Amino acid sequence: MDLKPLITLLAIVNPLAIVPFFIHYTEGFSPAQRRRTIQVASMSVFCVIAACALLGLQILDFFNISLQSFQVGGGMLLLISAMNMLGAQPAEAKPHTHELEEGAEKAAAGSSIAVVPLTIPLLTGPASMSTVVIYADRAQTFWQHASLLVYGVVIAAATAVCFALADPIARVLGKTGINVMTRLMGLILAALAVEVMADGLGKLFPVLVAR
Length: 211
Fold this sequence. Notes:
Elements: H1 4-13, H2 15-25, H3 31-62, H4 67-86, H5 99-108, H6 114-123, H7 126-138, H8 142-164, H9 166-204
């Protein structure tokens, strides 16, 4: 079983980096409300990954987009995400917008924040979705496609564990520890992004790989 898709998704989703946001958005929630938020967020993460794995290629066909072009674009998104992470920002965060503040306002108003902004865009955004579609195209057998769904379950479980242990994790790692781990994941993701882009460019322009 190829674990590269799982490693890539773990690096992008990186639920540890979202723990501080989870704590902030659920401040004042009762234990039952927190548990419900964790359940919905985890299920939403799996649903996004599963939808991209099962329907992503069909959507590309509908819009007549070649996978090679999608690989290059997706690789660029991954690289941008890696740059965010190297700056100790969540991969899918948009630090120069009011997206996070709007999420806080929704939480204060009593709206569910499990799907927005926790799942989308903080956990699974464009970079995560494009990664799943790229690896879905590489899957040749039923079991390889099924493995993507299994990886979705693993990512969802990792998200649930991190959120359930949010307070102990924040105390043990602290902001510095989370930042170090985020930067390490960003470095791994940058290397994977270059590989994805190189593969797409090689297919679009065969002369680049000609000997």
